[in-house]
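Technical note accompanying the year-one report. For the benefit of new consortium partners, we illustrate the data format agreed upon in the data management plan: each record pairs a sequence with a structure-token string. No post-processing was applied to the example shown here.
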Amino acid sequence: VQLQASGGGLVQPGGSLRLSCAASGSIFSIGHQGWYRQAPGKQRELVASITGGDVTNYADSVKGRFTISGDNTKNSVYLQMNSLKPEDTAVYYCHVSGSRWSGRVFNSWGQGTQVTVSS
């Protein structure tokens, strides 16, 4: 299963961006979708996740500003980011896990999209 992430870019502090991640391939069901980020010199960290289509989890640093949503009819996951801060600058990666039609599980990462928050 391949993931294609998009939507990153340069935005001023206080601005908004919407990241998208579309999965393609043999997908029977999706169980977990998440967005992670990695800033220079730091470890990759979980930003937000959605499990079972409706159970969400957010890092404390983004609560109230970011919203994760999924559309299983399109095998896609989104991250709406509002009130962006310079410390949100990072490469953002999507992650999706689930099962294929063959019954085998998959655990896939997107290629990363750069988000830069700067004036």
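Partners are asked to follow this layout when depositing records. The first strand starts at residue 2 and ends at 6.
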